[in-house]
């Protein structure tokens, strides 16, 4: 143990890592850069628009929209942590990333994903209270409770990511500094270490499984109770309205959890059977698809947000036409 500690402290870390992009798909990098740029633009504009509409409209100051606003912010953080560098790699071949920047990127990417799963749970709980206990909605989900829930979700993500980042960043890197990935995904980085990366990898797998697994169980329980309450309503219109409200949430959750879980477990269990480029592409799309589609889903399926966005865009276009004339 003493020898290992001495080895860790005396081994010099590389000044830079080099991101491979998507191994085996180098010929498609330009097309991938165009696709990612388009998706990133949609994600930025869509999520910023969602945040602007919620902040500007006093009638949208409800728990559901508060959590949606925080989710939009996390989508921007998650996509912005990886997409600009990916596009740079795919377009110009600028694959170099400094040691500190690599672990900073790793921290923000994985922390943002941990926050997002907590927000999805909070949104499911919000729908449960709104549909199953409507008379107590405002007394349960007060502004103080919403802020407290958001803080707990954030602290949980920090508590998970800080030890993981410390464990990986303190591994000795004495060999290759080429990361076979498009961003500093922690398993891909840990594989380059000269020491055994299993402790950090196990910590990541167990921690993410506990966080995601518990959130999924509570979300499933919430929606089971919601569906029971919905189908117990006598009015068909009330049933359809409740199902429509929950439909957007369930679609967003499917977009987040299905590719996310596939990415995590393919990296662990399918590494010898699933081609590396498929693993990397799946991990890349997992970080880009939800931020791109979330604002579209909420904008199209949530009537209040759809009306506010249409009104905001109409005013902007009308004011621009007046100034132009």
Nutshell version of this structure?
The protein is mainly α and 325 residues long. Helices cover 78% and strands 3% of the residues. It is globular, with a radius of gyration of 22 Å.
* Main sheet record: 3 strands, mixed
The count of DSSP E runs of length 2 or more, i.e. the number of strands, is 3
Q: By helix and strand content, what is the structural category?
A: mainly alpha
Low-confidence stretches: 1-10
Text of the CATH class: Mainly Alpha
Per CATH, the architecture is Up-down Bundle
| Sheet with the most strands: spatial strand order | 2-1-3
Helical content band: over 70%
Order of helices and strands: HEHHEHHHEHHHHH
Number of helical regions: 11
Q: Assign the CATH topology.
A: Rhopdopsin 7-helix transmembrane proteins
Rough outline: globular
Computed CA radius of gyration, to the nearest angstrom: 22 Å
Family: Belongs to the G-protein coupled receptor 1 family.
Membrane topology: Multi-pass membrane protein
Subcellular location: Cell membrane; Membrane
Organism: Orycteropus afer afer
């Amino acid at each position: 143990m003493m020898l290992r500690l001495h080895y860790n402290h005396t081994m010099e870390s590389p000044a830079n890592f080099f991101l491979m992009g998507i191994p085996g798909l180098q010929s498609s990098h330009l097309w991938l850069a165009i696709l990612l740029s388009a998706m990133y633009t949609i994600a930025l504009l869509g999520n910023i628009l969602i945040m602007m509409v919620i902040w500007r409209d006093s009638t949208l100051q409800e728990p559901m929209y508060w959590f949606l606003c925080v989710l939009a912010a996390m989508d921007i953080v998650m996509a912005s942590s990886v997409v600009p560098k990916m596009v740079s790699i795919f377009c110009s071949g600028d694959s170099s990333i400094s040691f500190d920047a690599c672990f900073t990127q790793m921290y923000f990417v994985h922390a943002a994903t941990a926050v997002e799963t907590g927000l999805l749970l909070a949104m499911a709980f919000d729908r449960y209270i709104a549909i199953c206990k409507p008379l107590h909605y405002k007394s349960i989900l007060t502004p103080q409770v919403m802020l407290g829930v958001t803080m707990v979700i954030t602290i949980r993500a920090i508590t998970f990511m800080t030890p993981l980042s410390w464990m990986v960043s303190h591994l000795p890197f004495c060999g290759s500094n080429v990361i076979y990935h498009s961003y500093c995904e922690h398993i891909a980085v840990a594989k380059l270490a000269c020491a055994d990366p299993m402790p950090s990898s196990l910590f990541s797998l167990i921690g993410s499984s506990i966080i995601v697994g518990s959130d999924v169980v509570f979300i499933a329980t919430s929606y089971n109770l919601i569906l029971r309450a919905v189908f117990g309503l006598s009015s068909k219109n009330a049933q359809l309205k409740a199902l429509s409200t929950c439909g957007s949430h369930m679609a967003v959750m499917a977009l987040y959890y299905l590719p996310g879980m596939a990415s995590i477990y393919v990296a662990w269990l399918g590494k010898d059977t699933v081609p590396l480029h498929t693993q990397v592409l799946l991990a890349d799309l997992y970080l880009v698809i939800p931020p791109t589609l979330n604002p579209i889903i909420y904008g199209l399926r949530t009537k209040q947000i759809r009306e506010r966005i249409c009104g905001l865009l109409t005013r902007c276009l009308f004011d621009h036409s007046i100034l132009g004339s």
